[in-house]
Amino acid sequence: MDLDHGATELNSSWRTLRNPHREEPAHSSDQQLQDPGLDPVVVWVPSGKRLISGLLGLNVVLLGAALVAGQVFNPAELKHQEPQLFMLLLMGVSLVWMLWYLLWARRQPGICPHKDHHAGGLTVTVVLMLFAAFSLLLYVFSAGYLISMRECKPAATVVSPFIEAPFLALQTYLLWAHSKDCIHRHKIITRSGLMVILSADLLLWLNAVTEDTIHEEIELERRDRLDFSNLNSTAAGGLDLEGVSNSSLCQCSASAACLTFRKGYEILFPFHLEYYLMAGCMVYVMWKNVGRGMSPGHHHVSQKLTLNVVYQGGIFFGLVLGALVLVAGVVVFILYQVWVSQQQLRLTAFHIFYGYHLAVMPVMSLCSLAGLLVHRLERRASEEGHNPTRSLDVLLLVAAALGQLALSYFSLVAALAVGTRGTLGDLDLSYSLLSLLELILQNIFIIEGLHRHPSLLAKKKQRSSIFKSKKKIAAPIEEEKKRDISLLQGDRPAAAQEHDGKQPWTKRAIQEICCFLILSNIMLWVIPAFGVHPQFENGLGKQFFGFSVWFVLVNLGQPLGVFYRMHSVGALMELLLSA
């Protein structure tokens, strides 16, 4: 017995020496009973971490999308307002879960032992709060307009702003205060609740896009008096002209209040679309972070966005050129809005729109290409490890760019089929080709920059510096080795300065490029977000595909393009701070 006991102790000591951080496993049943992080329902739940909530979200989104599509294509058969009632139910369940988490669950001990400091960055949070403020103001105008039209509007539609406003406000607070949480208790309920919120955001965005499609179609028919005689019966049926004519029976009254509410709703509508896309992305990151553990050294302290970043960094050329792009864009935007409604100046409005974009996008493409070359010369190391926020940023950049890329390729096919047919056709084709080039180069520049380590240089830098140091004298050898080791170990002051104490030219170049691209993308976001859509009224795609098909394509692609510009601004802001 003594020999056996001694052998057991020796084996235990040997295992401890081989792996000092390893702990002896406890009995499985005792571990399940004593571990506070395990939910009791884990015994009967399937082994997939996100299986139940993922299936729940998939089915909810598919059912909601089917209801929204039914409302668009055959609204007469949905007599009980099923899509609106389904949206109200989703928002109600989401409100219950958010109140449960904010008032009770988050106060439980050990529910959030870790934070994901990459999630909910300053720029994203500020933009989300801005969109939320405009969306809440939108609900005020929407409620006033629907109350004025309550006699010819369904009850569910009239009630929706009064449910949607609390849902948006509470979700904004949740994302502002708890977007970094890595929740480790009540995981199944938490994942399911977050997935319901994400499904509600996606369906509300989809519903808003379809409503905007119908609204734009009615506006085009009323303003331009479009003649649908050149369309065949199938295309005309797809437009649902009977529904459009019937909708004219329910018009806003002649009172100034109703007209004011409707105008405010039309102006603020783009912010409503962008909010749900951004909020859905942040909720998705929270869902991915449920049960995620963070290492103690994973926290990366980034420099706060202040005016001192621009001032101390010496950013001048990017700021000046970006300001010129903004000023010129504002002038083009105002002139387009004034001239496009006048028949004699309509062609000039199209010319200044295309001319502005054909002047700005080549410069943006050259800046992105220059940024890629600077990345190659700087040779920073890549960040390793799985990061849901980084993965989502890349996915959103690629997915959102698909909207404008698809429109460009459709226009290219139309040009090959029917020809450009005049100056406007040439301008539209050039605009589509330059959009392809600019989006591809900017995406590559941003994605590569997001994966660079903020302070470490690549290992190739160490080998080259050691090889060169062998040819030098003994005293300089020690200084070079110390300097290279400090660079490779992430000493930020050493990595951020040259040998003479000045900032490296690579950091200055990246900051100048990012500053210019930020201001340019802001202007390219403002122009389509506030109703400048010349491809609705002019374009090769409309001539080749027909009004109905092209209208649907543009209305699906344009919101994605607007979201891409907004999201690229946030990503470029992060590159500016981490340069």
Give a written overview of the molecule.
By secondary structure, the chain is mainly α. It folds into two domains: 50-111 and 118-289, no CATH class; 310-450 and 502-577, no CATH class. The protein has 22 helices and four strands. It has helices spanning 2-18, 28-34, 51-73, 82-103, 122-148, 155-178, 187-224, 233-239, 241-247, 256-289, 307-313, 317-339, 346-378, 388-418, 423-450, 459-469, 474-488, 492-495, 505-529, 534-537, 540-545, 547-577, and strands spanning 114-115, 181-182, 380-382, 452-457. The protein has a two-stranded antiparallel sheet. Strands 3-4 form a two-stranded antiparallel ribbon. It is globular and about 60 Å long. The protein starts with a helix and ends with a helix. Mean pLDDT is 75; it is low at 12-45, 225-249, 297-306, 460-475 and 477-502.
